[in-house]
Amino acid sequence: MNLYTVVLYVHSYLRWAVVLGLVVVTIRSFVAQRSRRGWEGTDERWHRTAVGLVDLQFMLGVALYVWLSPITTAFFGAPGRAMKDPVLRFFGVEHITMMLLGVALVHAGLTRSKKAATPGHRHRTVARFTLAGLVLILAGVPWPFLKSPRPLARGFGDSAQGQRAAPVESAGACPPAFRTRCATCHGEHGRGDGVVANSLNPPPRDFTDPVLQGRSDAVLARVIREGGARHGLSVAMPAHSDLSDADTLELVRCVRSLALPH
Fold it and tell me: 45, 46, 150: which is closest to 95 by C-alpha?
């Protein structure tokens, strides 16, 4: 499991804590406003905890967006073509925009509530801004019923193909770069069943595909170095132009080895 996968899983599960925290804060403030209850220490703790969870989740999201995610790497590799792909457009533009606005509203509620003249005004401010932020955050979640779906509980049903993965020995000839750059989409054993495989259209290539194996090493190397869009393939295949010729050749050999029977 690489760093991307770890952060992705934490980010996926932390969203439920974020949603719960914002829901609790919203409900408490609405109820307190109607009952004319004052601003209590419990209200303050829930509010600050919810904002803290939002900030932590946002930092993880930024790490994925600018550094770790192969999806956003693919988006920025060919943004013109990527805008025509619903998954890449969602994670490259729509998701981050919704989350930025949601986080901004949650923080606006925190800032403005401190300036409220009365407890009732403070509860009203917190309820309105937290609810607005929650709605935007929920709108930016890649729910399973959307065109860019992600599982509700990552790790359960991520990939039906994962049940037919090749033996562990099949990845023995692969360099570390395969795990950090390729396995997320193509799977640790090259069967097209990586963590994000189900959300990509077209799906990642299965390295046992005869079409792929019919291509020369030079062609495979160029696709790895230049990305899929450059060669009329999936725009979700990012370019790895920073790889040396030797590293690229190692990955080509890895792809060949994963296609062999074990």
Answer: 150
* CA atoms lying within 13 Å on the CB side of residue 86: 9
Q: Are 203 and 192 in contact (CB under 8 A)?
A: yes
Residue 180, CA distances (Å) to 2, 107, 177, 194 in order:
6, 35, 5, 12
Length, in residues, of the chain: 262
Q: How confident is the model at residue 169 (pLDDT cuts 50, 70, 90)?
A: very low
CA–CA distance, 22 with 134 (Å, rounded to integer): 6
- Report the first-to-last Cα separation within the chain, whole angstroms: 22
Arithmetic mean of pLDDT over the chain: 88
Q: Exposed, middle or buried by CB within 10 Å (0-12, 13-18, 19+), for 21?
A: buried
Round to whole Å and give the CA distance between 63 and 10.
Answer: 12
Q: Which token pair is 99?
A: 């989350």
Of the ranges 94-98, 122-126, 176-180, which one carries the lowest mean pLDDT score? 176-180
Cβ neighbours of 201 (radius 10 Å) = 13
Q: Which residue has the tokens 């013109």?
A: 80
Task: Note if the pTM is more than 0.90.
Answer: no
